[in-house]
Amino acid sequence: MIQSKRPWRTQGLYLSLVAGLAALWLLSPIAASAAAAPPTASDRFVGTAVIPIGQTSPVQIDPQDLTVRADGAVGIGYTYRAKGNASGDLPGPFTYLERGYLYFTNPGDPSTLVGGRFASGVFSLAPADVPGATVQIADTAPQNYTSGVQTVVGKLSPHVRKTLGGFVGDAGPLTYGYFTFTTAQGTFTGYATPDFVHFAIGITFEIPQLLQHR
Q1: Is residue 200 part of a domain?
Q2: pLDDT at 15 over 60
Q3: Is 89 in contact with 97 (CB distance < 8 Å)?
Q4: Is the pLDDT of residue 70 over 60?
Q5: What is the C-alpha separation between 151 and 174, in angstroms, rounded?
Q6: Of 98, 101, 89, which is closest to residue 124 (Cα–Cα)?
Q7: Which is the most buried residue in 3, 32, 123, 148, by most CB within 10 A?
C-alpha cells in the first residue's frame, strides 16, 4: 500500500470530493430513470355495453372472420363495444372496443363452445378539459388477459362492492364477472355484472406527449 503524501486536511477534502463524485455516479442511473419515466394518469372507467337494436347480447359475431386453433377448434371473430364516463386525473367520456375469437368444435352448434381468445381491447378517452383530444389506451399484453364469472356466498369485499355499484345485489349468493387489463404501468382487475353489460375498472396509463404540457 502506498501512503498518501497529502497533508491530512487536504487528504480529507480529497476523499470527500471522491466520495461525492462516486455518489453522483451511482445515483445518476436512478435520476436518469426517474427523468425518463413518462407522466401517468389514473382513471376509473364505468361503462355499459352497447347492444344493437334487435340483439340481446353485447357480443357481436362476425362469421366472415374465422381462424383454426391447433386442436382443430374453429374460432369465430367477435366484437364487444361499450361506452361510459371516466373519473380521475383525466375525466371524460370514453368508448371501448374489444376484439377476439370464440372457439367451437362445431361452429354450427353454439353448445360446442370450447373457449375464447382475447385479441385486443382499446379505451378511447376524450378528456373533458381538452376539447378535440382523444387518448387511446390499449391492452399491452392481450396474451395475459383473463376473465370469468365468480359466485360468492355472503358479502362481497368492500372493493368489489364499491366497483360494481350495487349492480349484483347486497346479500345471498352473489355472482359477478371479472376481467383484467394491462398497460405499461401494470395489470388491473375490473368487475362486471355476470352478463358483462355493466362494468367498472381503474387503470393507470401514460399521458400522451400532446397533453403533458396542457
Answers
A1: yes
A2: no
A3: no
A4: yes
A5: 5
A6: 98
A7: 123
Which pLDDT band, with edges at 50, 70 and 90, does 21 fall under?
A: very low
Tell me whether residue 147 is in a domain.
yes
Cell of 91: 375525466
Q: Express each pLDDT in 98-143 by its tens digit.
A: 999 999 999 999 999 999 999 999 999 999 988 899 999 999 999 9
pTM over 0.90: no
Q: Decide if 148 contacts 167 (C-beta within 8 A).
A: no
Domain total of the chain: 1
Give the span between the Cα atoms of 169 and 109, in whole angstroms: 34
Does 12 reside within a domain?
no
For residue 171, being part of any structural domain is answered with yes
Q: Which domain holds residue 179?
A: 41-205
Once rounded to an integer, what is the mean pLDDT over residues 24-37? 49
DSSP states along the chain: -PPP-S-HHHHHHHHHHHHHHHHHHHHHHHHHHHHHSPPEEEEEEEEEE---TT-S-SEEEEEEEEEE-TTSPEEEEEEEEEEEEEEESS-EEEEEEEEEEEEESSTT-GGGEEEEEEEEEEEEE--TTSTT--EEEE-S-GGG--EEEEEEESPPPHHHHHHHTTTT-SSSEEEEEEEEEEETTEEEEEEE-TTSSEEEEEEEEEPPGGGTT-
Q: How far is the C-alpha of 213 from the C-alpha of 201, rounded, in Å?
A: 27
Q: Do 183 and 206 touch, CB atoms closer than 8 A?
A: yes
CA distance linking residue 164 with residue 107, whole number of Å: 34
